[in-house]
Amino acid sequence: MSTIILITGATGLIGFRILLAALAAGHEVRYTARSEDKARIVSSNPAVRKLAPGDRLSSVVIPDFAADGAFDSALKGVTHVIHAGAPVPMPTFDPVTQVFQPTVKISSGILSSALKTSSVQRVVITSSIVANLGPTPPPTAVFAGTRVPLPSPVPSTFSNVFEAYVMGKMVEMHNSDEFVKTRNPSFTVSHVVPGYVFGRNELALDTAMMQTQNSSNNFLVVGMLGGELPMPIHGSFAHIDDVADAHLRVALLNPETEGPTDFGIATEVDYATIFDHVKEAFPKAVVAGVFKKGKVPTLPMKYDSSDAERLLGGKLKSFKSAVVDVAGQYLEQLGMEKA
Ligand SMILES: NC(=O)c1ccc[n+]([C@@H]2O[C@H](COP(=O)([O-])OP(=O)(O)OC[C@H]3O[C@@H](n4cnc5c(N)ncnc54)[C@H](OP(=O)(O)O)[C@@H]3O)[C@@H](O)[C@H]2O)c1
Description:
Blueprint (H helix, E strand, L loop, with lengths): L3 E5 L4 H12 L3 E6 L2 H8 L2 H6 L5 E5 L18 E4 L11 H21 L6 E5 L3 H4 L27 H23 L4 E7 L1 E3 L8 H6 L4 H8 L8 E2 L1 E4 H13 L9 E4 L1 E2 L5 H8 L1 H5 L10 E2 L6 H7 L6 H16 L5
Parallel strand pairs: 1-2, 1-4, 2-3, 4-5, 5-6, 6-10, 7-9, 8-12
Antiparallel strand pairs: 9-11
This protein binds NADP nicotinamide-adenine-dinucleotide phosphate.
C-alpha cells in the first residue's frame, strides 16, 4: 500500500512545516482545513509551489473538526495521520470553547474515525510539554512518558486560556492512552511533545505577520524587536526543523519497533540570550536599529529529551540556530542584507 499522510493544522506553524518536510521527502500528502480560503493559504504558498507537488498534494475542507465523524471521509485510504491542528492559547480565545474543548474533542474524533479506517497504521498527535509538567513545573526532569494525574473531577471552567490549554493537553494524553488500552486499535498512537517551538515559518509572508501571526515565534520576535512579554514562558525550546523531522520519523517508524511511543523535544534555554545571538549573527542590522533588545522572561524547568535525540540520530538543533533563522527571515522580508 502506498503511503498517504493526512496532516491537520497545515495552516499553522508546526503543521505547515511538517507538510513541507513530507512533500520534500516525496510523500503523498492530504491536509485538512476549516475552509476553502484556508486550504488555499497552503496550496498557494511560495514554499509549497517551489516543491511543485502536483497531485501528491490534496486538501479536504472540514468546517468543524470537532463534529462527530468529522474525519470519516478525510481518512479514506490514509496510512498515517499527523494531527497538529489544535489551538495554542491566544489571549483573545474563549478558554473552554476555543482551547479546552477542541484540544480534547478533535483528537478523540480522529482516533474514532481511524478505528473505522483499516488503512490507518499510525496516528501521531502533537502534544506539549505542559501535558507532562502539569500546571506548575516540578523541580525534577520529566519526559514524554510522564503522566500527571488528572484532578477529579476535571474542571469545566478555567480562569484563563493557559490553564485551559494545560488541562486540555493533560486530558488529551490521558484519553489517548485510555483509547489504546480499551479499544485495542490496529494502528499505533504516538505523541510528539515539544517545548516552545521556534524557527523559520514560511506562512509568515511579511514583517507584520512575523510579529502577530507566527504562533510561538511571536514571543521570539518580541525579544529581538525591543518588546516586553508580560509573563514568563517555559524555558525549554524545540527547533521547528527537529519538530517536523520527529513527526515524520515517528509516523513512519516500523510498527514492530520496540521503544517509547511518545517523544519530547525540549532543550533548556534562557530567553535573555535572544538578543546576544542576533547581535552576533547580524551586527550591522543591530547598528542600523532594526533589532533591539527585548524582554522575554524565562520560567526555568527541566525536561529529558533523550528519546527524541535518539530518534533524530544525534544532537537537537540549537536555540541559537532558531533565533538566527527567524531574525534572518525578518531581514529577508525587509529586503536587507543578512549581516
Ligand atoms: N508552537 C508551539 O510552541 C507549540 C509547542 C508545543 C505544542 N504545540 C502544539 O502544536 C500544535 C500546533 O501548534 P502551532 O504552533 O502550529 O499553532 P498555530 O500556528 O496557531 O496553528 C494551529 C493550527 O491548528 C488549527 N486549529 C486551531 N484550533 C482549531 C479548531 N478549533 N478547529 C480546527 N483547527 C484548529 C489552526 O487552524 P486555523 O488556521 O483554521 O485556525 C492551525 O492550522 C498544537 O497542538 C499546539 O498545542 C505548539
